[in-house]
Specification:
The protein is built from eleven helices and 13 strands. The protein is α/β, with parallel strands linked by helices and 254 residues long.
Amino acid sequence: MAMAHRGGALHPDVVGLENTMHAFRTAVGLGYRYLETDVHATKDGEVVAFHDEELERVTGLPGRLTDLPYAEVAGALVGGKEPIPRLVDLLEEFPHARFNVDLKSPEVVDPMVELVVRTGAQERLCIGSFVERVLRRFRRRYAARSSVPLATSCGIVAAGLHAFVPAGHRLQPLVRDAGLVYQVPVRFRERVPVVDEAFVARAHAIGRHVHVWTVDDRAEMERLLDLGVDGLITDRTDVLRDVLVERGEWEGAR
């Protein structure tokens, strides 16, 4: 499963334009069927595809997303060129794509639940968060609104147990994490290895997939694919596509 991180933030044609409609169009044009994005909620509850809490890094403008109405956020341009898209716009623009969505703040939980229920996009989404309480809140709020199954990734507690606690897989039932997939970095804080052959084997033994982020180096991609990981999340959508084509494992359009 090849996933375009923020639409492929380091693709040569996308640099400086992460999480924009242009970025996602570029990824889809390469044949990507799985797109990764981050979401925040504006002051008036619009779910927007944006990584940071603040606008400044990518737009040059001040302001926190949660403090601004969408009308103001819509006027900010990423890289001075591209508007910040709403998640609903991405779902409509790319009806055949599936999205891995990272919830970046507590404020986005309820608007995201509302969007999922309203659009009926459950089969096209996997929801995750690096903040355990945000992910658990989303699951509770969604379950209260809908009985339609919706995929979520495992929280950091379940992933940490699996990676670092001896026989941690046996403790998973105590965590009560309904996630279907571990989405983890290759290394924790760039030093401590996370993904190795044993990690992948243990995950598969309990019926969970392994997605690794953010993998931009060709040799690292090859190594992880040889380990049997189920998905790679990359900024270098061009490199990962070439690697998978060469290995005969590319599942997207050519």
